[in-house]
Amino acid sequence: MRHFKLDDDSVVVVIGSGAGGGTLAHELAAKGVKVVCLEAGKRLSHVDDFVNDEVEMFNKLSWQDKRSATGNWNMAGSSMPSWTVKAVGGTTIHWAGTSLRMRAHELRAHSTYGSVAGASLADWPIALAELAPFYKRAEHKLGVTGTHGIPLLPGNNNYKVFEAGALKVGYRQISTGTMAINSLARDGRAPCLQLGFCFAGCKMGAKWSTLYSEIPKAESSGYFELRPQSTALRIEHDPNGRATGVLYADADGTQQFQKARVVVLAANSIESARLLLNSTSAQFPEGLANRSGHVGRHYMRHVLGFTYAWFENPVHFYRGTTCAGNIEDENGHDPSRGFVAGYHLQTIAQHPAGMARAIAAVRGWGEPVARGMERYDHIAGMMVVGEDMPRDTNRITLHASERDVFGLPIPNVHYDDHDNNIAMRKHAMDRAAAIYEAVGAVDMIWVGPPPATHNLGTNRMSARREDGVVNRWGRTHDVMNLFVADGSQFPTATAANPTLTIVALAIRQAEHIASSMKRREL
Amino acid sequence: MKVQRRTLLIRTLPAALAIGPMTGWAQSVDAQVPEKTLARFLYLLVPLPAFATADYDAASWSLLDKASRLPVLKGHVQALVQRLDAAGFMSLPLPAQLGLLKSVQGFPEFRYLSNPAWGVLNHKLVWPRIGYEGASFPLGGYRHRGFDDIDWLPASAKGGQ
Lengths: 522, 161
Fold this sequence. Notes:
heterodimer; A: alpha/beta; 5-stranded parallel sheet; globular; B: mainly alpha; 7 helices; elongated
């Protein structure tokens, strides 16, 4: 295992080991670039530490450091407005594996949708044609079904209900989806045995995760050092405005400073923005790389919501992959529906305790919960994943008084649901109801947005420095050797689940960083 | 009898709850045994006919055990039990118990505890009674155990993929 000294200023320091950080670190190390990866969470073994228990794994994996939430959304007042992972591998442990490319029109959101009141829509400074080759490489890396000749996964019971209903109401673009879950053994990972428990981490390793794919590969390169339980506290810079390294707390809580040639932020959208906001200095009084004032703004989380339906006969929706299917038909821009942008419908399953909570949230505790849970094995479920509107007032800020264990302000997540989101959610709810009614649903509930797993947009990418935080390579406009590699760089959310795009951008960014270093531009 | 019940309580309570200053429910021998109040609370939140009283007792003890390690949870459990016991919760008929719970559901301790209360459904022994099979890894997943065995749907045009 390679170890780098704290005063080694030739290393790239990557903060975070998830889809962005883990991928970027491996890609750089494979090119002979020295990388130190700081990860706040522990390193778990999917073989030894993962169990088929959603609640136990939730407690083991989740980022539970306190956060506060404000706004007109249903998470206001929650201390956990977002569900992310604090472990090596980050959210690639609990993601569903859904791997969708963004569409050309989505990357031109402002041009396509026009100006929407109360929204800060923007065009991406990258076109789909430029991203396409990196999508292809990302799909190969992840082993995405339906690409590179990899067979689709078979449909489980939950999917079959979903598909039958969708066909009956006239949808045609329905499949088990492009998934980063092995339908065949591949790349040292097992084929999916339909365990279920995808959100609890894949004990088989059939679902791609940086934990057991990118990180071990990076380690075997000899150019990579992983430092788990290392919480980044602050990014420092020199008088010339170059990042010099990262102050972090190690596993013992001792503060260390790792020097760096390049620093890359990949700590998920809330923490990445928070870290910049906490890294104030005389040069950057509003936070590092925040001369534009955009750090923390345009926070997005997708339009989310669940529909659960009960049937006369059993479904056993928990058997097999959690997100077992996808409907593409509503993922277009059709303003005649009463809103701009589009959404996906995807299957979802819920463990018993979570299902009881969902029923109680809609119908209250007591008899409604009992009635619903008596027929737990008769439930089918789906969720909407739609494009939400960016707003400059939806933002991560530092809490005025509450501090974490290191004495730093906790983040506040402010989100006001845009009318477009509400209209889209309503439309999706109606369509989901039609799908399940078409195959005989006897009862149904719609459950409002959960804590966000798709946190996006707080360090948005922009062509002009005054419009965002990072440029088309994910490099901050203000600090030339500071990059962002997570979903916080997304200018708009699009309707695609974000991981595939984060990976594609990380592959592309690694090429840019490595070549820039070679040319001594970094 | 009350003394005996209290003795039992102290003997079987998790250490952190049983030792130290006796506050709240354990202060008075007249207080209801807390695990029973808590078990009844859990039952009324999730009154599944397929579950036995012992299932709720077990969930109550599990929550108390967790509370012994989590001061915030312990505080909320104490507050809820005290509030319910003060109103004679355990001796009320069912409609009045439900009415009492509805009247306190806005209090912080109720809101807090209505979340871990769903833990009643997180005990492996009760899962078969709601048709949940639990961990699948030790059994080789569901790939060959019915993940696609649904047989009541109308024939679809595409057929499962």
